[in-house]
Amino acid sequence: MVRRVALALLVPLALGATGCLRARGTESEPIVTELKLEGVEALDAEDIKAKLATQEPAAPGGVTGLVRREGFPLDPDALASDRRRVEAFYRDRGYYAARVDKVDVVPDGPGRARVVMHVVEGKPVRVTELHIKGLEEVAEARERLKELPLEVGDVFRVSAYDATKAAITRGLRTKGWANAEVTQAAQVLPQEGTAQVTYEVKAGRRFRFGPIFVAGTSAVSRDLVREQASVDVRTGAWFDESKLSKAQARVFNLGVFAGVRVTRGTPSAERGIIPVVVAVREAPFRTIRAGPGLGVEATRWEARGNASWQHRNLFGELRRFGIDLRAGYAWLPTPWADQRSGVVALIGFEFQQPAAIARRLDVSARVEVERGLELAYGFWAERVELGLPVRISPRWTFIPSYNLEVYQLSDAPEAVVTRPGTPEAETRPLLVGCPSSTCLLSYLEQRLAWDGRDDAVNTRRGYYVGLSLQEGFRIGTVGYRYLRFLPEVRGFWPLSRKLVLGARARVGALVPLTEPKEPPIVANFYSGGPLSMRGYYTRRLSPMIEVGKNDWVPVGGNGLFDGSLELRYALAGNWSGAWFLDAGNVAPPDNGETAWREALSLGDLQLASGVGLRYATPFGPIGVDVGVRLPTDLSSGVPFDKRFPPVPSNPNAGTAEHREPIVAVHITIGEAF
Fold first, then answer.
1. Which of 235, 464, 575, 661 could form a disulfide with 490 if both were Cys (CB 3.0 to 4.6 A apart)?
2. Which CATH superfamily includes the segment(s) 2-120?
3. 650-to-115, 556, 558, 598, 643 alpha-carbon distances in Å
4. Three-state DSSP class for residue 84
5. CATH architecture of 126-202
6. 417 pLDDT more than 60
7. pTM
8. Neighbours of 525 (CB within 10 A)
9. pLDDT at res. 160
10. 142-145: long-range contacts, CB 8 A cutoff, minimum separation 24
């Protein structure tokens, strides 16, 4: 049912992506149906169009923007000004000889017209000389000025010309010359195609950071705010303007202020210092949230209620304490094909003390109890996490922790296993890797990440790199000794105003250390789902075991590899689309130290391609992704369904093979990565 509804929504919306224009103007003021710029090669035509008064039909805001367009009447006076705007746009980017040769207004039906501008670009003006005067007295700042936005040989762009002035000023002000001034001059000769650029520096006196003043606090200690700001702004150090924004982000990340502003005070030329002012506005310390939730997937339906309470300044000193509650009912895979259903719930208590050990070192603790349900088992789980988050910088995250997890597994079905050479099938309890119905994991974990993306929700450029390490050990005679690695990298590159290329890759390795049995099922890797390999539903790209006739449940494995290549493109209004190519594989569970490497086998790698549709909202994009697995066996005479690979092999499943559906439909909130 989910698949039918999703396809019913996706197909007509995709077909209507170009929108429908119904408006018509008059003979004297026709509606513009198209604006075309012929001859544009050096620059992006879409960037030029965005600066013009004459506009093509555009999608209105809201849901209807995908299937409807609003047209704009042609204004002859605005069109004449647009000719000058195009030439000015080129001039600012170094093409002083560019001109609009002519403009054609072509009828396009009653009350409609197409506008065609014929552009002659000419040759660009290039920088032949670039001088920076006055750097003799500021030798310490020269290393910051090695790579500037404008260099000899570059096309003379006004934006790069101004950015170079800003870069020189910034380089001086990050080395103590807080009142440095830079003047600029350029002699442009369009006919010769040359530009001579000169910057003159007046550095002034060099300053150091002075005392830090805090304003706006009431319940929060000013000393605590000052201490956090002093991590970046150190009294007595050479003044560095870039440190102010870092101190502002560090204070704001304490999580108790609605607003933070860190600015420089009035310089004291006599003492050679500049005081720093930290102005804050406290937010309410207590927060209560509650509401219903509904999760719908092809392999799981869940209705639940959520509630949470948090105090961000418990007993002062910014101690944070919170309680999370979640309770509901789950059906696996659906209410209509009910293999397993029951109550699911979670209660969690979390505590955090900023700067408990040092200015950059916090202490955190979380305790939770969960009643959960998976296709392979039901469980009660008790988890404890003790962490020492290190606040390195706004882009860096480092959290070392100790974790203790105890699972009481129940309702585990019996696996049907047919061994090679054995005529009859045998059954056994499906508690893979657990010596009894209780699984215990005790491990140290280190999570390290660097986030260089421009926006974590709607990313257009940047990189993200993350790494999770776990070292499992026994407590007495219980537990499991293992090493677990999970590095991840993501990259984003804008190809145009409307097109972004994204890529992601993950490799997971679970390495048992002299253990006689395979890892516990709760520690294994899985793949598949809207945030992973979209040719499969959640956790369905995994080694599986048959628990009944044609009933297969995932048990995970020692190794993981998955990756995605995605083109995201703006369609109209709040709507956008995506094309993706996903790859993935999971190694079978095993107690061997090198078993995880099977996930890296290119011969076993599974591929899926598909398209997605997104609608932007204030809390992130909502959309639908449709993934189609790609065939691997194109030999003649092979049945169609056999052309597609089965799920990863599993020795515990015997010789039986299983194939998942070829098409998977995912309803998503947020991007896949």
1. 464
2. membrane protein fhac (3.10.20.310)
3. 63, 9, 11, 12, 20
4. helix
5. Roll (3.10)
6. no
7. 0.82
8. 26
9. 95
10. 144/170, 144/171, 144/174, 144/175, 145/171
